[in-house]
Task: inverse folding
């Protein structure tokens, strides 16, 4: 098991995912692997993330990016040309 699997279990949200990728797989590669494995259309796929690395990985795969707003990425919220989500409850 990977650390991300344990985190998802602890949060009680593991059942919302059909596959999970984490370190050491680079984000750009993880997105490409998921698109290939599940035969997704990248134009109908979204990436939700909170960092510049997440944004770049989405761009590298022609995937729409949603920035999850946090107190740690305030500069990104102003700099990136993407949709911003405050949280998953009130949006």
Result:
């Amino acid at each position: 098991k990977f650390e991300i699997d344990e985190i998802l279990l602890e949060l009680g949200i593991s059942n919302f995912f059909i596959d999970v990728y984490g370190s050491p797989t680079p984000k750009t590669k993880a997105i490409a692997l998921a698109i290939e494995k599940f035969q997704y259309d990248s134009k109908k796929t979204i990436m939700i993330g909170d960092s510049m690395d997440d944004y770049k990985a989405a761009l590298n795969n022609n995937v729409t990016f949603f920035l999850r707003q946090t107190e740690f990425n305030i500069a990104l919220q102003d700099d990136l040309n993407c949709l911003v989500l405050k949280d998953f409850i009130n949006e």
